[in-house]
Amino acid sequence: MNSPTTLPATYRSLLQVRGLPRLVVAAMLGRIGGQMASVALVLFALERFHSPAVAGITVFASAFPGIVVSPLAGAILDRSGRIKLIMLDYAVAALAMALIVALGAAGVLSAALLVGVAALSSFTNPLSGAGTRTLFPISCRATSGTGPTPWTASATSSPRWSVLPWPGPSPAWWGGRQP
Q1: What is the pTM of this model?
Q2: Residue 118 burial by CB count (10 A; 0-12/13-18/19+): exposed, middle or buried?
Q3: CB proximity list for 120: less than 8 A, separation 6 or greater
Q4: Which of helix, strand or coil describes residue 154?
Q5: How many CB atoms within 10 Å of residue 45?
Q6: d(CA 30, CA 48)
Q7: Please, which residues have CB within 8 angstroms of residue 108's CB and are 6 or more apart in sequence?
Q8: I need a surface site. Which of 66, 88, 122, 174 has the fewest CB within 10 A?
């Protein structure tokens, strides 16, 4: 049985993990796209309906259903193919945006329809957010062979702390180690 090779704990070696640079770029582009979609929904609702209330309700509808179903996302991701579910979420998001554009261009988009499309597209959001984050430790564990390391813990500790992996692995050291 071949044991995985152990690389030194450097960022250079972390980026040598097979597929990890592509995963980092994909996660970054996915997160940027999701944030841009939220901003686009606000600007579109303001421009189309001239109502901050409609814009706020639309953004709320684009987030809240996903938050409600997010506890199920982990179970679904564990039992199904992560990458296929991530691609499903991105396809649903693209179709929702295309539908909003098409309905708006046809002149039949009402505020209620905009909120409804935003809410429906929200149900798959946790699949890409959580799914992408779960791929990081899986990718790194395959190379280290020792389970979670300070590098993977730092890189995947929290989606809102996305700047922390770049200055260094200190959050992993302060937060303790997992067996």
Answers
A1: 0.72
A2: buried
A3: 65, 96
A4: helix
A5: 24
A6: 26
A7: none
A8: 174
Report which of 126, 26, 23 is spatially closest to residue 76, judged by C-alpha positions.
126
pLDDT digits (tens, 9 = 90+) for 155-176: 444 444 444 444 444 444 445 4
- Domain ranges in the chain are 16-153
CB atoms within 10 A of CB 111: 16
pLDDT at 100 exceeding the cut of 60 = yes
Q: How far apart are CA 126 and CA 72, in angstroms?
A: 9
The answer on pLDDT for 82 being more than 60 is yes
Any idea what DSSP says for residue 4? Answer: P
Q: Long-range contacts made by residues 36-39, C-beta under 8 angstroms, separation at least 24?
A: 37/62, 37/93, 37/97, 38/62, 38/63
Residues 6+ apart with CB under 8 A from 86: 30, 127, 128, 131, 132
Cα 30 to chain centroid distance, Å, stands at 6
